[in-house]
Amino acid sequence: MANREEIMAKVSELIGPFNNKGVVLTAETTFQGDLEWDSLTVMDFVAAVEDEFDIIITMNMQAEIESVGQLADAVAKLMEN
Amino acid sequence: MIDLLSKFDPLIEERETLLATGVKDPFSLVMEEVLSPTVAICNGQETILLGTYNYMGMTFDDDVRQAGLKALEEFGSGTTGSRVLNGTYSLHRDCEEALKEFYDMDHAMVFSTGYQANLGIISTLAGKGDYVILDIDSHASIYDGCAMGNAEIVAFRHNDVEALEKRLKRLPADAGKLVVLEGVYSMLGDVAPLKEMVRICKENGAMVLVDEAHSMGFIGENGRGVCEEQGVIDDVDFIIGTFSKSVGTVGGFCVSNHPKAEILRLVCRPYVFTASLPPSVMATASTSIRKLMHSGNKRAHLWENSKKLHQGLRDLGFTLGTAEAESAIIAVIMPDLEKGAMMWQALLAEGLYVNLARPPATPANMTLLRCSLCAEHTSEQVDQILGMFEAAGKAVGAI
Known about the structure:
The structure holds two protein chains of two kinds.
Chain A lengths: L3 H12 L23 H15 L5 H4 L5 H13 L1
Helix pairs in contact in A: 1-4
Chain B lengths: L8 H12 L10 E6 L2 E4 L2 E5 L12 H14 L14 H14 L3 E5 L2 H12 L5 E5 L4 H9 L3 E5 L4 H10 L6 E6 L1 E2 L4 E2 L2 H10 L3 E5 L14 H4 L8 E5 L9 E5 L7 H4 L1 H4 L6 H14 L3 H21 L12 E6 L2 H14 L1 E2 L1 E3 L9 E6 L6 H18 L3
Parallel strand pairs in B: 3-14, 5-6, 5-7, 7-10, 10-11
Antiparallel strand pairs in B: 1-2, 2-3, 4-12, 8-9, 11-12, 13-16, 15-16
Helix pairs in contact in B: 2-11, 3-11, 4-5, 6-7, 12-14, 13-14
């Protein structure tokens, strides 16, 4: 099973193609505030993350996830289940 | 005190900026007189209506109007009550009978609006621990039905069969699942691949609800919608529809063959906690629904109109939402809101009304001039409409 560092690295890699502003990524980087993603970009990105880790991130969960670090935590938790 | 309306400041500013360019407010048009399903007087000018969803032109049908007048005389102006208390008249039951005949199904439940039908059925069916799987471009009433319930919500890319299948396979096998699809998506007028999607839902143990708001009366041999056209109507668990489009009045419904469907009348809050539709509305709806069962010729003419407008707009150089006409909705894609509003106003000045659709109602932040055809538009009117698009498009530099 992937550890949190590996998950962070993979998540950052998946953000790449959507990071049009070239924002430097940290665990605190937010999707809406820093990356300025609209709902369509969020959906494409979530689909990429879901396919990579073979998980489902429901819209209920997405509403609670604001930063890259929170996403990595959520992915780690989903992979445990 | 915190002004709770200040959260809308960005929208207020955007509107003021738009109106400062000199365009009229596209969201406050008034129809002073309505002459027929296809013509009204707006700003004192005769205007062809091309954005009403009045697909089958039933609003001025003589039998429909007579039925409404008779019911108004005999049953009064309103029920002043819930369907489960004093708000069910013989006319409400008859309207549900008409729906059962129309769809050849066992159960029909009439709601006060189509919005409430989605709100009620989705929030009631999918409870805590269940999953609703929906297309990302679903109508607001579907999203609101999800927000009102306690289920987990999973979205998939618009009309993407593979994305739906992947998500269904990842969900727990023992969880309740409701997949919500639409026959025709109202923004671009594109049709869902229901044949494949419904099969995948069944293979993965999900129940299926299809909203046929924009296809009822028009698509399918008997006008039952895209489910009928693609041969999967018997595998769909619930069909949601509305009376405010092809039927030509107001109201919503759910039809189903599920043996336990009747219990929904007691547990569905948007059905219980609101007043039922007025008797005249029920009488106009039943009359219209029964006439729509035998409207093959009108369906054929509406297809002709839709295909002709689609081809004509393409020939003029407009960018459209679909490669071919898939429904009676033809969406013209505009580069931005300002250009869209200018074009909308130029069309209105020519004597043509279309819908201006803007984010967040539209997919991919598009600004659309959405046209919906009517079976009562004559072929000559479609020619006139194309002439107006050409003149307006050239005037504002859109083509």
